[in-house]
Amino acid sequence: MTISPEQKNDVISISNYLLDRFREYAVVDASPEGRLQAQLLWVLDKLKDPNFSLPLPAEQLSTLRYIYTDGTLSFRASNPDDINSIFKEIELPLVQLINVLKKGHLLIKPDYYPHISTVIGQLIICLKKSHRALTKDETKFLAELEALKLDIDSGKQELPFQSHLPRFPGYTEVKSFRGNTIDDIPRAKNLFKVFKNAVFNGVRPETWVDEVTAKQAVEALVNS
Predict the structure, then answer these.
(1) Whole-number Å distance between alpha carbons of 124 and 134
(2) Which residues make Cβ contacts (< 8 Å) with residue 27, sequence separation at least 6?
(3) Which long-range contacts (CB under 8 A, 24 or more apart) does 152-160 make?
């Protein structure tokens, strides 16, 4: 697919952030800092091609993917002993770049928080109106959703989260690759997918091209 203006701006912005962060290191293959810069400069050069499209083949992003997966540059955070510093300064920019370039995803941004809140609110309603009694883990997950919605609505919470734990033990038990335990509850499966991808993966549905289409998609989801 053709890269959108938003995706292009995201790639440029994140790449420039990382290049600036590691500018004191030479662009050489002998160091992870140098290899990352070389990969980023290659990406920025590719963007100049009017026929540039997404997603890029995985092999063309091997350095970026390895550095993210291996955590090679975690010690370059301003506070290497603080997992929050590592996540915000190193891990999140890397995974965001991978999400756009390798998967063609659209990123979650504060403008879309109200729509995420609406989805969470609808998921809460689904669970509360369930045709069956919720399990202990599902009840715990419901409480987690209610607390999260309050934090998002009050402006206290940035997305995405670095990890499910320790804040979301209920969610950890409810989700499964083979099917979530709440999938039998009407509308819960589709709402859960949007919630999960936004809150833990930091991406939004491909139909959420802008705020208008996001609102329309959420309304359709709510009324489904």
Answers:
(1) 12
(2) 34, 37, 38, 41
(3) 152/113, 152/116, 152/117, 152/120, 153/117, 159/108, 159/113, 159/116, 159/198, 159/199, 159/202, 160/92, 160/108, 160/198, 160/199, 160/200, 160/201, 160/202
Would you say 40 and 116 are in contact if contact means Cβ atoms under 8 Å apart? no
Q: Which tokens go with 199? A: 């809150």
189: Cβ contacts below 8 Å, ≥ 6 apart:
180, 182, 183
> pLDDT digits over 72-126, tens only?
999 999 999 999 999 999 999 999 999 999 999 999 999 999 999 999 999 999 9
In this structure, what token pair is assigned to residue 37?
């810069």
Q: Which residues of 158-185 are buried (b: 16+ CB within 10 A; e: fewer)?
A: ebbbeebeeebebbbbbbeeeebbbeeb
pTM recorded for the entire structure: 0.93
Amino acid at 126: C
Q: What is the DSSP letter of 107?
A: E
Return the residue matching tokens 């975690």: 74
